[in-house]
Amino acid sequence: MEATQLKHSDRSDRLTSFDPDDFAVPRGGDDEENWRFTPMDRAAPFVEASQDMAPAHVTVENADNVTIEEVGREDPRLGTVGRPDDRAAALAWAAFRTSHVVTLGEHADAVLRIDAPTGMSAVHTFVDVPSRASGVVVLEHTGAGNLTETVEARVGDDADVTIVSVQEQEPSGAMHSAQRLSLGRNAKLRHIVVTIGGNFVRVTTQQTFEGEGAESNLLGAYITEAGRHHEHRVFVDHKPAHCKSRTTYKGALAGKDAHSVWVGDVLIRADAAQTDTYELNRNLVLTDGALANSVPNLEILTGDIVGAGHASATGRFDEEQLFYLEARGIPASVARRLVVRGFFAELVDQIDVAPVREKLMGAIERELDLGEDA
Q1: 233: three-class secondary structure by DSSP
Q2: Which of these, 195, 202, 214, 226, is most buried using a 10 Å CB contact count?
């Protein structure tokens, strides 16, 4: 497939290609926007790797009103949702041998566990949500090795789906996931990313509106511990009119050299009249020595919008809240937990997949224990 580079002065100008050789090997630094916060020594396996990788171990743990097929690379459905926009995503596309195609019916439910053994492995998943279908698809990532991943999701007209990606690898595990999502007319998508494990995790999400009247709610939560790097990049592309998007990511960091990165890009194109969009990132630093980078970007090419905005904040505990609680006889350790739980409460309430919500709450409790010991 040939490379495509659109000639505009907005976010769509970025090179896209299925061929890794169309991308230079990134070296990081301020002159490479897509990699400037990324530790390139840890990213090296994902941007310099050979295409000869072992397949990850995929186990179907639940499939209700769902058809799951294992297909070869020649399947015509593959490669139809977006295109890789960096070398790591292109290498992930080139590396997989077979794909699991998950096709939803009405009120469908599917859980796939993706385990990366020691070494380097690749995986591809295609989520097909036909017109008026609905359900929940959960991808659980585990393992001690390196995993390079592509997820494609096509949400048809009037469909309603929740897609969840949980990263809970071992401390030695690393992962790069390129997730590309498209929404048809009046479609509804809830995309949830929960990162609570892994030494190096980089998740890039491209979500494109293809039909009018669609809505997306992109949620993310991450718990970043000492020495770990968790990076989440989100691009929402408003092409047609009358679409609505919300992006909300929250993270907590504790420990020396804990590092999180969140970059949110929203593009409202000239034809995207009556767009309604908002993106929010909040980071709570629990101990000294942790760093959070947060960069929201908003490009608007039409004046006919309902609303567009973004917000970003990184800070320590709200000392006034702690003082207020302690002044009323609540022990400091309990007050600390109440503040952190309150920080995540609104986001957790929106995660209506009980096992995922429980995993996140368990990770929050572990992080609080680490913060108290630091």
Answers
A1: strand
A2: 195
Q: State CA 273 to chain mean position distance.
A: 27
* Contact of 147 with 121, CB cutoff 8 Å: yes
pTM, entire model? 0.92
Q: In this structure, is the dihedral angle defined by the CA atoms of residues 269, 221, 339 and 290, taken in order, positive or negative? A: negative
d(CA 358, CA 87): 35
**Cα–Cα distance, 118 to 252 (Å, whole number):** 28
Would you give the DSSP letter of residue 128? E
Interval 295-314: pLDDT, tens: 999 999 999 999 999 998 88
Longest CA–CA separation in the chain, Å: 66
Q: Which helix (H) or strand (E) holds 43?
A: helix 40-47
> For residue 16, what is the DSSP state?
B
Residue pair 118/92 in contact (Cβ under 8 Å)? The answer is no
pLDDT of residue 207: 98
Beta strand ranges found along the chain (DSSP E) = 54-55, 57-72, 98-116, 120-129, 134-143, 146-155, 160-167, 174-183, 188-195, 200-209, 215-224, 229-238, 244-253, 259-268, 275-285, 291-300, 305-315
Average pLDDT, the chain: 91
Please return the burial class of 76, using the count of CB atoms within 10 Å of its CB with bins 0-12, 13-18 and 19+. exposed
Residue 158 pLDDT exceeds 90? yes
Taken in order 28, 316, 193, 268, the sign of the CA dihedral is negative
| 26 and 44 Cβ atoms separated by less than 8 Å | no
Spatial distance between the Cα atoms of 74 and 30, rounded to a whole number of angstroms = 39
Asked if residue 4 has pLDDT above 60, the reply is no
Give the strand pairing for 120-129 and 98-116.
Answer: parallel
Fill in the DSSP letter of residue 25.
Answer: P
d(CA 167, CA 114): 10
Q: Which neighbouring-strand residues pair with 190? A: 162, 217
Amino acid type, 370:
L
For residue 264, which of 243, 285, 278 has the smallest C-alpha distance? 278
- Name the band, by pLDDT with cuts 50, 70 and 90, for residue 360: confident
